[in-house]
Design goal:
- Helix content is about 35%, strand content about 15%.
- The chain has about 290 residues and is an alpha/beta fold.
- Strands 1, 2, 3, 4, 5, 6, 7 and 8 form an eight-stranded mixed beta sheet that branches.
- The longest helix has 14 residues.
- It starts with a strand and ends in an 8-residue tail after the last strand.
């Protein structure tokens, strides 16, 4: 089985619609794909309706969190999307995205970049506006060559010159809320140092003690020594070690299924989840 547990659609900051993403996942030879848009489940219904035979969808989201001043992302899988407390927190994060993006546009303008809010809004379309949309604007303007080049201290990286904070969950609250909604939590790209400051391993240990289920090990932003360290840390802390593409369509060079999760790990994730079931083939969403 080929299992990719971290992808994005136009419901947040990917370039493929949820339906296009499902077709692309099938064409890439995946057996299982997770749709984990930022702080939203808005793309799930379209993805389910377009799900080809032979492909299983894991519903999820990537939650924006912050601990001790450091941003981090928490992948949440197979939770009940209607659980009110978690839904309320996702809405708070989404509502803060537009003023935050406008602030970053203002900072870029102050740095002499001729970016306009209308350009960013056009790029974001109906998605939850975020830094990748602003980064795409910088590419269009010729300020940087690629979206990844915008995520540096010079521009949009955590703490960068044009960075602005937004409402983010405390990760301990995120774990509690996702578990209460029957879901499973995995710390996304925990040591992606090129994105900015990362949380210390001591904090990962505290999150594990609080019920974190796993850490994303095999990821494009982790080099081989980092993956080896994370694999050892996962074993030490009793965490599941996942692998995923973090696919964003044409915004990143990574391909669907470039990094994958071991079938036994995927099986354990589905065993732990009680909020929702994976959706096979052309089936419908099944609350647990």
């Amino acid at each position: 089985m080929r299992i990719d547990l971290h992808t994005h659609s136009t419901a947040s900051d990917g370039t493929d619609s949820p339906a296009e993403l499902m077709r692309a996942a099938a064409a890439a030879g995946l057996d299982v794909v997770a749709l984990t848009d930022h702080d939203t489940v808005r793309g799930h219904a379209e993805a389910i309706a377009a799900l080809p035979q032979g492909l299983t969808l894991v519903t999820g989201a990537e939650l924006s969190c912050r601990i001790d001043g450091v941003s981090l992302h928490m992948l949440a899988y197979l939770f009940d999307p209607d659980e009110p407390e978690l839904a309320r927190e996702r809405e708070l994060v989404r509502d803060d995205r537009v003023p935050r993006a406008r602030t970053m546009v203002g900072k870029l303008q102050a740095l002499g970049v001729p970016v306009e809010w209308e350009q960013v809004a056009r790029i974001a379309g109906d998605g939850s506006v975020g830094r990748p949309h602003i980064a795409t604007a910088l590419v269009e303007l010729g300020v940087v060559e690629t979206v990844s080049d915008a995520f540096t201290p010079e521009w949009l990286a955590n703490g960068g010159r044009a960075y602005a904070e937004k409402h983010e969950l405390d990760p301990f609250d995120a774990i509690r809320l996702v578990k209460a909604a029957g879901g499973v939590t995995v710390f996304a790209h925990p040591l992606a140092v090129k994105r900015g400051e990362v949380v210390p391993e001591s904090s990962i240990a505290q999150l594990a003690a609080a019920g974190l289920d796993g850490i994303e090990v095999d990821h494009m932003d982790h080099d081989e020594p980092t993956r080896a360290r994370l694999r050892g840390l996962a074993k030490e802390l009793g965490l599941l070690a996942t692998g995923s593409s973090d696919y964003h369509g044409s915004r990143k060079t990574v391909r669907l299924g470039e990094y994958t999760t071991d079938p036994e790990i995927y099986g354990e994730i589905t065993r732990r989840a009680t909020g929702a079931f994976p959706v096979p083939g052309a089936g419908g969403f099944c609350p647990a």
